[in-house]
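Is zinc ion placement plausible here? Inputs below.
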Amino acid sequence: MLLQASAGDPFFNSVLNFVLYLPFVLFFLYGQRLQTWVILNSVSRSLGKLESLRNRSKKELVDYVVKECKPASDPGDRINQFLEYFTIMPNSLDPRGIVNKIEHVVSLQEERIATEVKALAPAASSIQSKAVENMVEVATTLNMLYKVVRHYYLIGKKTASLYVLMQLQMIMPSILQEADALIGAVDALKLSQPIGDGIGPMVAGRIMLNIPTKTIAKETVLAETTYMSRTVYVIKAEGPIGTVGHLGKAVGALVEDMGVKPNAIIMIDAALKLEGEKTGEIAEGIGAAIGGVGVERFRIEEVATKHQIPLYAIVVKQSLNEAISVMKKEIAESGDKAVAIVQRAIEDRTHEGDKVLVVGVGNTLGVAQ
Amino acid sequence: MAMMFPSFGEKKQKMQVYTIEECQNCHDKVKRPFQQGDYVYKEAGECQKCHGKKMITMVFGEEPQGKQQQAKSEQKAPPQSKQ
Ligand SMILES: [Zn+2]
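Reply from A.M.:
I modeled the complex. Tokens:
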């Protein structure tokens, strides 16, 4: 009505035009600022979530130490201090001998954490102190993750840089996913339940069942058995404490020190699946199936190359989340299948009278032998 | 982007953890809830059927889907039975 009545008025027309075009002009001028504001909000929400996850991991750690290990004094401050602990990896400008340097630093780090845990909870059993060590690792990682994300968030906010914030927003979902996986690990660690990564030790443990074992390296055991007229040596980390053992050293000790020259090395490990692949699916391949910093893989590859021993890999597929939280049914049930595949590999790829080395790779938390 | 993950980690249900005890002799399997101190390849007493040695052969987590499905099928059951 009003529009019709005043349609001919030139003044009214220009006002109407102005009102219609104003949003476009404003958006043209302030659009980026608006976008920055929206992204800043979304990143800040994710950051809040990350902070709560970090706090939860810290609280769970303190609670576990207080409840299970009964320390003399309040461990809160000491744990807070310890979460800031850092490791400087060796310089690789001249990569010659880098593996020994890395091994040195990593074992120093392990020892340092173990001593600190011992001081925190002197009365803890070996299973408990290992659980604390693992929980410290989770809490430290979450702490670091939170602090790095906060760093970029604050830089983005301070400089109002849309591009810093956009990058942060883009990687936020995968960071949150990782943080989520880490917090999932705490539940399993607290109760010493086997995790998905424990499938390798579980398979090796089944092969060495009811056979006497001996310690071949720190937190690593060896058993000797026979299968279809082959001598089978089995190596795994010593369960049920939460450790990955020192498999590289163990293989070295068996081949170099004990003089056993296997005709094949078969390694069983958990492997990260691609999105869409089924959990618990088993794949076979060649090469040393072992993760970590790379020191263990280097050692095993070196021994295998020196003595021309073929390396066979058997992997059980799982996501990162599944690998570090309590073992899923699909993964546990793939154990029998994996044992059968190991046995078939021994039959197919070696002859009677041969020696075979089977290595179960992974964290053996909640899996004995 | 964050709106896509409003409740990250909360939506996911906590896994129910079970322990499987298997008799070494008659291979009878018993599924029970996980108790603290359980670990794989731990001796688990005597088999009730044949008095053989039992051992824990698996500890695993299961999403409590079974219960939900049961509840749903129970809800659906009455109208079906009327037909
Ligand atoms: Zn029985």
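Short version: The beta strands of chain B are 16-23, 29-33, 43-46, 53-62.
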